[in-house]
Amino acid sequence: MSFPQSRMRRLRRTESLRALMRETAVTPGDLIHPIFLCPGIAVRRPVASMPGVFNLSIDEAVREAEEAARLGLGGLLLFGLPESKDELGSGAYDDEGIVQLGLRALKASPASKKLVLIADVCLCEYTNHGHCGKVIETADGWIVDNDPSLDLLARTAVSQAKAGADVVAPSDMMDGRVAAIRRALDAAGYQQTPILSYASKFASAFYGPFREAADSAPQFGDRKTYQMDGANLREALREISLDLEEGADMILMKPAMPYLDVIRAARELTGVPIGAYQVSGEYSMLQAAFQKGWLDPNRAILESLVSIRRAGADFIVTYFAKEAAKLLG
Ligand SMILES: [Zn+2]
Fold first, then answer.
1. CA nearest 111: which of 67, 167, 77, 59?
2. CA 295, CA 284: separation in Å to the nearest integer?
3. How far is the CA of 205 from the centre of ligand 1 (A)?
4. Helix, coil or strand: residue 21
């Protein structure tokens, strides 16, 4: 049937018709709010390249969690800025590390009953060189040594589970990390702690502002020997398949908006829950346009999130989580 029998505009005539026809929804419960924990008390330090994002001391993070719970958000993703850094990133797997202390404080708050507490598993915030694993020198220069890094990542995940993490989320992109973490969690009695693996994480320019927020910029080289080439879709699907074989319960795709086709392909590949991370650069470029008055924040925030859900993500990690929940409320 074609025009004039068929008229697409009939179903767009009123807001109530449009609401009934709407295929994709975003709810506050789909959104995960990232938190950058830092030492101190009553610290709320703005991240210059990410307006509205702060480094928070643990007491401030607990307040933030209470607000997140009131807004009906799905959960928090925790990153840590340690007091000091070293060669092997020992702050990541220290039972008294910043994320572990934060997890215990958050767990003790009533807000945690309503939020999923997800701990980012990586070493780059804790190593003095800013890479995601153990670094060694070879004839070809400095490299991140895969297999010895697995043990450190697994220790990090166990320590976070012990401190109260509901979910651990390895973001390092070492080969074999999901299996190593699963084995270590099971051996330590955390068979029920799920792994959300950053299965397809691309080496992206859009992570720039995060490195200021998490103080995790590599001090030499880049992350292209472990994060993926942005041109590769088939490789992303192989990464996902391998992580699932190793025992990942869910996968996280990163970045989101420049890689919507990869999210769609992942959705078609697997039935496991898929999250997408609307990363710092995606957030900051929208914020820059809002500050200039070039885009309407209320509409652009929700449209960006709907596009990620429509591509196939079940949930979204986003710095707009609180703002979006208010708009949706
Ligand atoms: Zn890392």
1. 67
2. 13
3. 14
4. helix
**Could you list the active site residues?**
201, 254
CATH, residue 229: 3.20.20.70
Domain that includes residue 70, residue range: 25-328
pTM of the full structure:
0.96
At position 75, the amino acid (one-letter code) is G
In the reported structure, the alpha carbon of residue 196 is separated from the centroid of ligand 1 by a whole-number distance in angstroms of 15
3-state DSSP assignment of residue 159: helix
111 occurs within a structural domain: yes
User: What CA–CA distances, in Å, run from 215 to 122, 123, 208, 210, 308?
Assistant: 13, 12, 11, 8, 27
Which helix (H) or strand (E) segment holds residue 291: the answer is helix 280-292
Residue 317 CA to ligand 1 center (angstroms) comes to: 16
* In-domain check, residue 48: yes
Q: What separation in Å is there between the alpha carbon of 70 and the centre of ligand 1?
A: 31
Tokens of 37: 């924990």
pLDDT tens-digit map of 192-220: 999 999 999 999 999 999 988 888 888 88
Q: How many domains does the chain have?
A: 1
Where does the pLDDT of residue 89 fall: very low under 50, low under 70, confident under 90, or very high at 90 and above? very high
Q: What is the pLDDT of residue 67?
A: 98
251 within a domain of the structure (yes/no): yes
Give 328 Cα–ligand 1 centroid separation in angstroms: 32
Residue 185 — very low, low, confident or very high, per pLDDT cuts 50/70/90? Answer: very high
| Cα 102 from Cα 92, distance rounded (Å) | 12
d(CA 275, CA 197): 10
Question: Which token pair is 321?
Answer: 């989580």
